[in-house]
Amino acid sequence: MKNKYIAIEGNIGVGKTTLAKFLANHFNGSLLLEEFAENKFLKLFYKTKDYAFHSEMQFLLDRSLQMNTFFDQDHPIVFSDFHIEKSLVFSKMNLSKSNYSIVENIHQSLFNNFPKPDMLIFLDSGIEHISKNIKSRNRDFEKDLGIEYLENLIQNYNFWLDKLKVPVIKIDAQSIHYDNEKLLLENLSSLLKSALSLGF
Fold it and tell me: Which of 10, 39, 60, 147 can pair with 14 through a Cys bridge, CB separation 3.0 to 4.6 Å?
């Protein structure tokens, strides 16, 4: 059986990390979590809307190092709370055409040889639910994110999903009950069947 790689994506605060941890535990898989705390440019961007290019460049370098280390080991099953192409989704929205072109070229150079996800789980959610979750987790650098920015991000994610060449499973994030494992497995039944069809 060849290795399996499941990525989870969605807007800010929809529960990507929680779901990735749950599935990794359920399938006894390896967990690849997005590391963002050290990206000081990201915090400045969220606060001032400056440093967008710096933030994306830092993201590319950080993820490159992280994935080099991670995929240096064998992982029969991988669950990740991000798809590496998310940097292009954010870059297309936040950067000028010339800076986006730079990021796109560097992205291809850095990540072209890494394993690609076999399937994407996309957590869909309305703005009200997203805003509530962002406030609940209380990260200082996310407090200044406005509704317009989050709505724009949803639109850009949808453009990206339309062009993605791997199976995509969309799930309503509000239908997932993380405090009840039995109910969560019931709500994710279609997801689990799709995972099984990939050879799990």
Answer: 10
